[in-house]
Amino acid sequence: MSERPESLYEAIGGMDALRRLSNTFYDNVLADPLLAPVFADFTPTHIEHVAVWLAEIFDGPASFSGQHGGHQALLRAHLGLSITEPQRLRWMELMTDAVEKELPDDALLRRRVLDYFDWGTGVARDVSASPVGEDLGAPGPTPRWGWDGLRRPTGC
């Protein structure tokens, strides 16, 4: 039995795998009648930003926090989108398809990645109900997701 990499980022296959995952996913999202309206302002740079975010979430480089504003910026991007539960569930279906196509054939790895997406889409849905410009307070550092799920920051 081979030993697993320490981080999900390594097990996933790094940035190249996350870019493939994001590309596959958004190709399907933008063609989906339920989800395409949520991404009306979509630009190709969105795919790269998502890959960079996921790298940080899964214990890769902290480039999203360093270059794109971190957790606060990600949450603020969802304000006013009014994501519905049917949209969230469809998002999960399309992401599950992308995970199965693009990530290594490792049941635990895929389950942990999808656990993150389930958690994260719930947060996005909740935040999206607030209007643009809403004060989100201090959401804390960018979450990190590992083999055991959400890891709490040290010192909390």
What's this, in brief?
The protein has 156 residues and is mostly helical. It has seven helices and two strands, in the order H-H-H-H-H-H-H-E-E. The mean pLDDT is 93.
Structural write-up:
There is one protein chain. The protein has 7 helices and 2 strands. It is mainly alpha-helical and 156 residues long. It has a two-stranded antiparallel ribbon with strand order 1-2. The longest helix is centred in the last third of the chain and has 22 residues, at 107-128. It is globular, with a radius of gyration of 15 Å. The N and C termini lie far apart (35 Å).
Features:
156 residues; 2 strands; two-stranded antiparallel ribbon; globular
Topology (SSEs and partners):
Elements: H1 8-12, H2 14-30, H3 45-57, H4 63-68, H5 70-78, H6 85-102, H7 107-128, E1 144-146, E2 149-151
Antiparallel strand pairs: 1-2
Helix pairs in contact: 2-3, 2-6, 6-7
E-strand count? 2
Strand numbers in spatial order across the main sheet: 1-2
- Biggest sheet, in brief? 2 strands, antiparallel
Principal-axes geometry comes out as: globular
| Measured distance between first and last alpha carbons | 35 Å
- Low-confidence regions: none
Tell me which oligomeric state these chains represent: single chain
- Percent of residues in beta strands? under 5%
Number of helices: 7
Order of helices and strands: HHHHHHHEE
Helix- and strand-based class?
Answer: mainly alpha
Portion of residues within helices: 55-70%
Gyration radius from CA atoms, angstroms: 15 Å
Mean pLDDT: 93
